Amino acid sequence: MGFLALAGTFSCHSHLLVLALYTTHKIMTRIFISVFAASLICQAPAQSPANPPKQTPAQMAQTYYLKGQAAEKAGNPEAAKQAYLEALKLNPCHANARYSLAQVKLDAASISAKGREAKFGEVIVPEFNLDDASLAEALDFLRTIVEKQSQGKVVPNFVIQDPKNLFATNKIKLRLQSTPARAVMKYLMEISGGKARYDEYAIVITPQ
Length: 208
What we know:
The protein is of the alpha+beta class. The chain is 61% helix and 15% strand.
C-alpha cells in the first residue's frame, strides 16, 4: 500500500509539472507574440501615409500633368503652362504634357475667358429685384451685386453691342433670391432677347 501511495503521489506531481510547463509555454508564446507585434507597430511609421514612398520621376511628371489639367479647368493658363513644363522636365517623353503645353499656348485667351465665366457664374446673388429696367440698368445692377458678393474678386465688365438699338424696347421685370449669377444672366438674356459672349476682357451682349 505504501508503494502504491508513493506511486500515486509521484504521478500527481508529474501531472502538475506537465500542467505547469504547458501553462508557462502558453504565457511565453503570448509574450513573444506581443513583443513581435509591438516591433511591427514601431516600424509602421516608415510605411504610413505620413511617410509615403518616394515617387519616381515618371510618377512626379504625371502629378504635374494632372495639376496642369486642373489649372486649365480653373481658367489659369499660365499655371497650366508651368505645370506642363515641369512634367516635361521630369519626363521628356510625356506625350500628353507636350500636347497640352502646345494647346494651352494657343488657347490661353479662351481658357482665361472660361475661367472668368466660371468664377462669375458661381457667385450667389442673394436678391435681384427689378421693375421696368432697361438691359443696361439690369446689367449694371448685376455687376454691383457680383462685385460686392465676391468681395471685389469678380468684377464683370459688360459691353452692350446693339447698333440698331433693339434692346431699347424691352423692359425687364424680375424677382429672384439666392440665385447663381450664371442663372441671373440667363434670365436677363431670355427677357431681353440677347445673348452673352465671354471674351478675354469683357462679357459682350448682342441681340440674338
